Amino acid sequence: MKDLIGMSFRINNELNVEADYTVGKVKKHKIIDINRFCDIVSKSSEVTECNTGILPAGCIAYREAPKTFKRFVVLELKERRMNLTYEKTMYRDFPLPRLIYGFWVDRYGKVTSVKVTVAENGKLTENTILYEYPFSNVSDYKMCTGSNQLPTVKCLAQLERMPYYIFSMPDNNDLYRKYNTKLNMEYRDLLEYLKDKDSDFYYSDVLVQNGETLSDFINRA
What we know:
The chain is α+β, with helices and mostly antiparallel strands. It has five helices and 13 strands.
């Protein structure tokens, strides 16, 4: 509305909305049916366009929660070998299965939650089979980063580096479950056993299916 200076609302005893506003120098008063008012507010808050900006390499899915302005970005880690530090031991070029990460990012670029799972090999689809995460610090897909502060991102493309940052943090035994693998080993023993293997070994001798698919991972809060 041209020359609108300000507007205030209140609900009267008849449960109608009374609006007081000023146009130019003229003060005005209007009564609006509350159902009509709710309809106007609902339509005015609808998101008509979504511009993600440049997405990170390996991005396979994107969700947005308009009411909270949070974004959920799902990406595949292409590397099958990474340096992994457990307590004070560095395992260089440690073999990995196919890891899928999900990052919830708020409007300020803060990563508020990290999810991770293991996917089967082959073309990714909504029906791609998932496996229990064989390492530590993860429960029901959600990764615990402890007191470690994850970097704030200025754009979603920067999430591409987040898995590398996570792997740079020292690992421990938190949330590790022996029964999440077929080997049923203590964590240190598992890492020692796997360090000389390759990625394919996970699928033949290590991983346990969790009964869900990639669609479940993408769409779960």
